[in-house]
Amino acid sequence: MTQTAPRPPIRFRGRSFMAMVLAPALPVVDWLADLDALARRSPAFFSGRPVILDVSGLSLERDDLVGLVSDLGARDIAILGIEGAGPALLGPGLPPPLSGGRPAGDIAEPEPGAAAPPPVETAPMPVRSLILDNPVRSGQTILHLEGDITVMGSVASGSEVIAGGSIHVYGTLRGRAIAGAAGNPQARIYCRKFEPELIAIDGLYRTADDLGPGQRGQAVEVRLVEDTIKVTSLD
Questions:
Q1: pLDDT digits (tens, 9 = 90+) for 75-127
Q2: What domains, with CATH codes, occur in the chain?
Q3: CA 139 → CA 59, 99, 100, 119, 233, distances in Å?
Q4: 49: Cα separation from own chain's centroid
Q5: 3-state DSSP assignment of residue 72
Q6: Single pTM value for the model
Q7: Across the strands, what pairs with 198?
Q8: How far does the chain reach from its first CA to its final CA, in angstroms?
Q9: What Gene3D superfamilies does the record tag this protein with (predicted)?
């Protein structure tokens, strides 16, 4: 009988791209009219660009936000994530919340008729740490691919912390922690109380069901050992 070779573990990796941020201004109908004028001058300006919608400072109801995303979709502007919206505004049918992005320079409007430039991958940046003084709330996604992330509080269920380096949680880890997301097998995850929904390092992941009860509730270190995730209790 022929034996089937063992399947390799599923891996996923992060990749950093420059995203355009659209920040609507009130009244939104006038802002959309200005956007349409830009599209008439440069029809391919948004072609192939990842776009983040920043609604910080806008008082929008959920129906208004759904309508705005729909209006942008009708203009072939696909929104990958939303900044500045509270959890009550988001949910099914809307892009996910995003936070923790690094500001970049303004993107100049092209000359009329000019072709849109191709999507630009971000240049390598010096490794640096991101320190969060507040807990990570349910529904939040913290993304920092340039180094470690340190959370001084807890990471709530339904939230996600994604780091290019290691992740340090000084409270309880209940959400998802993804370290080494930019391709770093040396990255590690540390937390004071281990109750995660999912952990991952360098594309290898394990869910809560896979982990079992062994180290739950303990202070732990998570690292890769020969392509296997190892969870070790800390004294």
A1: 888 888 888 887 777 877 788 887 666 555 444 455 555 554 444 444 444 55
A2: 9-122 (3.30.70), 130-233 (2.160.20.70)
A3: 19, 11, 14, 28, 28
A4: 17
A5: helix
A6: 0.55
A7: 176, 207
A8: 48
A9: 2.160.20.70, 3.30.70.260
